[in-house]
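Whiteboard transcription, Tuesday session. T.W. wrote the C-alpha cells on the left side:
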C-alpha cells in the first residue's frame, strides 16, 4: 500500500451560483521519502491539490488515503488530530506571530501537546538548531531577515516531527540566494526522512526535488522523476 494515494479526485467550487471544476479525476500516488514539487500555470489547481493532500479541503468526489486511512471519512475532530500528528505546513507569507520571539513561535503548535513545558522548550531548541537559528531564538520576527523568518516557520512546521511537510510557494517572497538556501534546507529535511510536497512557480526548485508534477487545467499534465541528489 502506498503512503499517500489520491484516487479519482474531482473538486468543484461553487461561487455565487457558478460552479468551477478545479481538479478533474486526479490520481496521484506518493511514497514515503519523496520530495515532490507541484508546478503549473496560475489557476491550474496546484493549491487545491495541495490543500486536499494536506487534509484541509474535502474533494467533491474521490478519496485520499494516507497510511491506509481514508482521510475524508474521518470526523472533523479526528481529521484535525491526524493533521496534527502527520503534517506540517509552510507558506509564502510565514504567518509568524509578530509579538512572539522565534522560539515562542516554534513552540506554538506544542501548546496543545502532551509534552511538558521543559520538553517543549527542548524540542523547539532542537529544530531551531536544525534550521541554524538557535543563536537568534529570542529575536522577534521583525528583527530577522525574510529568509530567517522562513526558517523559523519551517522549524515550527517540523517541531512535532511530522512525516509529511507541505509547502505553498515557500520561496515566493525571497530573493534568489535566500530562496536557494531555503530549498537546501528542505532538501536536508527530506534526507532526514520527511516527505515533502511543495507548490511552486520557482523553476530552480526542479534542481532540488525528486519528482515534478505539472498541473494544467485541473489535470496532471506530466509527472517526472528525477534521480535523487541530482
Ligand atoms: N474557494 C474557491 N471558490 C471558487 N473558486 C476557487 C476557490 N479556490 C480556488 N478556486 C478556483 O479554482 C482554480 C484553481 O485554483 P488554485 O488556487 O488551486 O490554483 P493554483 O494553481 O494554485 O493558482 P496560483 O498559482 O495562482 O496560486 C482557479 O480558477 C480558482 O479561481
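and on the right, the sequence the group agreed on:
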Amino acid at each position: 500500500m502506498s503512503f499517500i494515494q489520491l484516487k479519482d479526485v474531482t473538486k468543484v467550487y461553487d461561487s455565487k451560483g457558478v460552479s468551477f471544476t478545479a481538479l478533474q479525476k486526479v490520481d496521484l500516488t506518493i511514497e514515503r521519502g519523496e520530495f515532490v514539487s507541484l508546478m503549473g500555470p496560475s489557476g491550474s489547481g496546484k493549491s487545491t491539490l495541495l490543500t486536499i493532500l494536506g487534509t484541509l479541503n474535502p474533494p467533491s468526489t474521490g478519496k485520499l488515503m494516507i497510511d491506509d486511512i481514508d482521510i475524508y471519512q474521518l470526523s472533523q475532530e479526528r481529521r484535525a488530530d491526524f493533521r496534527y500528528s502527520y503534517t506540517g505546513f509552510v507558506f509564502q507569507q510565514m504567518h509568524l506571530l509578530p509579538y512572539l520571539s522565534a522560539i515562542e513561535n516554534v513552540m506554538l503548535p506544542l501548546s496543545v501537546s502532551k509534552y511538558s513545558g521543559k520538553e517543549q522548550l527542548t524540542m523547539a531548541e532542537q529544530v531551531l538548531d536544525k534550521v541554524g537559528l538557535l543563536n537568534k531564538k529570542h529575536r522577534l520576527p521583525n528583527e530577522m531577515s525574510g529568509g530567517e523568518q522562513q526558517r523559523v516557520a519551517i522549524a515550527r512546521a517540523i517541531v512535532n516531527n511530522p512525516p509529511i511537510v507541505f509547502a505553498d510557494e515557500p520561496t515566493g517572497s525571497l530573493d534568489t540566494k535566500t530562496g536557494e538556501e531555503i530549498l537546501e534546507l528542505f532538501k536536508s529535511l527530506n534526507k532526514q526522512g520527511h516527505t515533502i510536497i511543495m507548490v511552486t512557480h520557482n523553476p530552480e526548485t526542479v534542481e532540488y526535488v525528486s519528482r515534478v508534477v505539472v498541473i494544467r487545467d485541473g489535470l496532471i499534465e506530466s509527472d517526472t522523476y528525477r534521480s535523487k541528489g541530482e
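Someone added at the bottom: The longest helix spans residues 176-191.
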